[in-house]
What we know:
Layout: H1 6-28, H2 34-63, H3 66-78, H4 87-125, H5 131-163
Helix pairs in contact: 1-2, 2-3, 3-5, 4-5
Amino acid sequence: MRNLPIWAVAVLMFTVTGGLWFLFGLLITPDQPPIVRLVGTIFYAGVMTVFFTIWIARARKRAGGANELDRIGKAVKSGSVPADADVDMWTATINTQHDQLRRQLWLGPVVFGSAIALSTWLAVTDGWLWWGGVVFFGAVLIWSVVSTPRGLRQVAHVRDELASRPASISRS
C-alpha cells in the first residue's frame, strides 16, 4: 500500500473502512433499517477516507514521495541509512516520527485504557459483543506498550546516524 497512487489508497481506504463499519453495524445494531446503515456507512467511510488520504499525502510529500517514505521505513527497520539519503529531508521525517513515538509513549496507554474502560462499561450495560472490544483494545494496548519503545530506539538510531552526516547540498 505504501507505493500505491494516492487515488488507489483512497479507494482502498473507503472500501475497507466502509465495509468494516457496515459489518460491525450489523453485529451491534441488527435492527437498524438498511438505508440508515448505508447512509451512516457512506458518511463514516467518506470522512475517514478524506482525513487519512490528506494525512498520507502530506506525509509522502514531506518525505519526498511514496518511494522515499518507503525507503525511510526500511531504514528504520534495518537500522542503516543508505549512502544516497537526502539528509535534510530524512532528518525532518525522522524527527516527526520521533516526536510521534514520544507522544505515543504516554498517549497510547491513555487512549487504549480509556477504550477498554468504555468497552467494559458497554459490555456490562449493552451486550456481550462489546467484550470483543475489550479484548481488541487490550491487545492493542499491549502491542503499543511493547512496540513503541522499540520503535523509538530504532528511530533514535537512524536519527543519530543522520546527525553524524553532513547536510545535503541543495539542488537548484
